[in-house]
Structure formats: C-alpha cells, structure tokens
Amino acid sequence: MDAANVRGVRRLSTLVRHLIVPSPPSSSSSSSTEAPPMASQNPNDLVAPSPAAAFSSVFAHVAQGPEDPILGVTVAYNKDPSPVKVNLGVGAYRTEEGKPLVLNVVRKAEQMLVNDPSRVKEYLPITGLADFNKLSAKLIFGADSPAIQENRVATVQCLSGTGSLRVGGEFLARHYHERTIYIPLPTWGNHPKVFTLAGLSVKTYRYYDPATRGLNFQGLIEDLGAAPSGAIVLLHACAHNPTGVDPTPEQWEQIRQLIRSKGLLPFFDSAYQGFASGSLDADAQSVRIFVADGGELLTAQSYAKNMGLYGERVGALSIVCRSADVAVRVESQLKLVIRPMYSNPPIHGASIVATILKDRETYNEWTIELKAMADRIISMRHQLFDALKARGTPGDWSHIIKQIGMFTFTGLNSQQVAFMTKDFHIYMTSDGRISMAGLSSKTVPHLADAIHAAVTTVN
Ligand code: KET
C-alpha cells in the first residue's frame, strides 16, 4: 500500500471510530490520565493501538518536578484567594498601586515601531539586531570605551540575562581552557543550574557575612586567591542578588587587581544596571574598571528590570577581547553556539531597546523613568524600616536601608518565612529575600506586622 493509501485508510478508520464507539462517561472525559477511547476491533484497522499502548504512558515513570524556588513563589501566590496577599518573591517592579509597569518610553517606542511600515518580521541574523548590539555594548562599557573604539568587543543579542549567561557559559565550556566557574555564596538561584548545564563546573566563593549582614571581603579575597589560575569568576555588576550588598569602589579595585594578577577570567552578570544607584553610568563602574585595564571579560546584560521588558526576553552577551581579530573569531563561535540552540533571537524587544537607546530624547526619558523606579524602591526601604522601628520589632533592621537594588536580604529564616506566608499571605523566597519593588505604601504596614509577628513568635 502506498503512503497516500495508508493516509486514506487512517482517516477513514478515525472517522469510523468517531461514529461507532460510544463516548466514555462524561464525568471522566476531561481527565488527563484516562485511556483513549477503544478503537474498533476491525483487524484491518491500521491505527488500532496495542492494548499496552492504549493504557499506559511511555512517560509514566516521570516524577513530579519541584517548583522553581523563585518563580514557584508566584505560582503559590496566584493560587491564594486571600485579598491581603502580597507577592514579594520574584524581582519584578510594581507601581504604588501594585500593578506591573510598562514605561512610557517603551510605549512610545512601540508606537513608533508600529507606525513604521518599513518594519518587517524577517529573521534577525544569528547574532541579533546589529544596532541593538552596538548600543548595548555602549551602555555597559561607556560611549568612549577603548574596547569599543578598537573593535575588540563581540556582542550578541540573547534571550535576556539568563540566555546571555547560558550562551556565554557554553562558549567558555567549548573554547576556554579552564572549565571551573566560581560564583558568590549566596547568588541568584539559577546561576549554578545555568552554568552546570552549559558544561562548566561550579564552585563558590565566600561573599556574604550573615553576622554583619554585609560583605565578607576577607573571605572573598581568600577564596579567589586560592582559585586555580585561569578560573572563571562570576561577579554581579551591581545590586547583588539576593543580598543587596555590593563591594565599595575601593574593594572593587582590590578585586580587580587580584583577578588580573591571578589570570582569572571575570564574567559579569548585569541584570540591574540603573537599579542600584539610579545612574546607569555609576552602576556600570565595576565592569568599566576591568575594561579600562585592557584585560578580557564577559558581560551578560538584561533589559528585564531596567526597561521593564521582562517577558520580551531581551539581553546581550559581550565578550571583550584583547584584539579585534580575536573578537571576530569569538563572534563566529558564538554563532555556532546559538544557531542549534534557538537559531536567532526575537526582533520586537531588541527593536524597542534600540529605538530608545539611539535617540537622545528617548534615552533621557528612559533615565528619568528608571530613576523614578529606583527612588520608589529606596522610599520603600525607609518606610519598612520606620514601620519596624515604630513597632519596636526586636533586632537591628538598618540593613534594610543599607542594602541596595531590588532586594532586601532580611535575615528571616525559612520557618519565619513559612509562618508569614501561612498567617499573613506574604509570599517571598524561603531564604528571607524580599523584592522591595513589589512593596507599596499600602502593603508596608501589613509586611511590618508579619515580620514583627514572625520575629517575636517563630525562632
Ligand atoms: N541575573 C540575576 C542576578 C538575576 O537576578 C536575574 C533575574 C537574571 C540574571 C535573569 O533575568 P532575565 O529575566 O533572564 O533577564 N532575577 C529575578 C527573576 C528570576 O529569577 O528569573 C529574580 O531573582 O527574582
């Protein structure tokens, strides 16, 4: 029987099944575990499944996976019917009204794109939108960066910060001689998974001191000092997640000297440029001192937070090389990483970013809106600190106003967090991290009550 005939017989037998076979009882008809309806018993029926195939799934052994420690908080929050619930889990900016914010400048850029009939939906190149890549490198390294002027930077558009880290990690696993990456302890929970799956081996360096709720600078220097020469070091460019603790400019300089003297390779994760200080340039300073010394480095940039483009998945990976010809070859290899992974990146988000960055007026509008977001978060810090002081909550809470960026690393333990979720419907990650960007003047008193109750009743 030829292929057309086989298809014909299949279509017919499907039709026959629909006409003859009685439907199963309606109460179970939507159950996903239910077996498919019995096929007709006609021995000539080419699509009749074997009895075993009809009743068991080839995936029956698949175990239920755990929810993600950060994004799973939103899943739990969405299921809670309480009217007083507050989501302080994922790092996503909310307005005073608790609503997601689309920046005015983003709306404006989108309108410009929609109104431009020359815009098409063709595939982008594997490396993404060329304008976007150039402007992204300028944003992080500075307009007058020698590395950019000397064409020593290979930049590729990637799927937001995560995708940039993943592509960078896989490039290093394929082409760099040292496969170990040192990440801070603690760090963003996805880092170890992203780098392990990229083919690197993950180790940690000390970063945070719970006793002082500040930087464990001594531990950091000792651990990086003991790392094998050439090892990769993941650094948060600013607004360290989850601790909200960054090195001072002097400490950054010492870290730079140590990294360069040992020949370690810095990989910056820049997910919060502009959110730490409100200034894009100030927040890129850590990266720029490493570019200024002429050495090599990688940077993963995200526009999720600072442009509010979370779901557009827009980011960039830049690799600063010693020379222009190395950068050309590096870019050619990045393409070989990207092409089989997702072929090429999406066009819309990158077009929004490029539209905003290339025009002085829209760029300035963005910086004003960004500063307003950063300022609102700082004001939340003060309001929460004052509210705890007013309640006489035991403990020193000054770290709430000292820490920077989107998060406060409260020091609350996982039992206290579980209590706050159960009794107060406050959703946050179990490590005690609060997304300050999810808080508003209206919800501060409720959070302060919850923290007060947790600290005074749960150890
Ligand atoms: N790096 C860091 C340090 C980071 O906090 C995030 C996101 C990312 C990269 C990736 O962001 P992307 O959306 O891929 O550009 N952090 C928040 C969201 C998440 O976990 O996905 C968070 O910590 O809540």
Automatic annotation (TrEMBL):
Catalytic activity annotation: L-aspartate + 2-oxoglutarate = oxaloacetate + L-glutamate
Gene Ontology cellular component list: mitochondrion
Top enzyme class: transferase
InterPro entries for the chain: Aminotransferase_I/II_large, Asp_trans, NHTrfase_class1_PyrdxlP-BS, PyrdxlP-dep_Trfase, PyrdxlP-dep_Trfase_major, PyrdxlP-dep_Trfase_small
Gene from which the chain derives: LOC109719187
UniProt record similarity statement: Belongs to the class-I pyridoxal-phosphate-dependent aminotransferase family.
Annotated region described as Disordered, given as residue ranges: 20-47
Pfam families per UniProt: Aminotran_1_2
EC number: 2.6.1.1
Subunit details: Homodimer.
Other noteworthy facts: In eukaryotes there are cytoplasmic, mitochondrial and chloroplastic isozymes.
Requisite cofactors: pyridoxal 5'-phosphate
GO MF annotation terms: L-aspartate:2-oxoglutarate aminotransferase activity; pyridoxal phosphate binding
BP GO annotations: amino acid metabolic process
All copies of domain Aminotransferase class I/classII large, residue ranges: 85-451
Protein name in UniProt: Aspartate aminotransferase
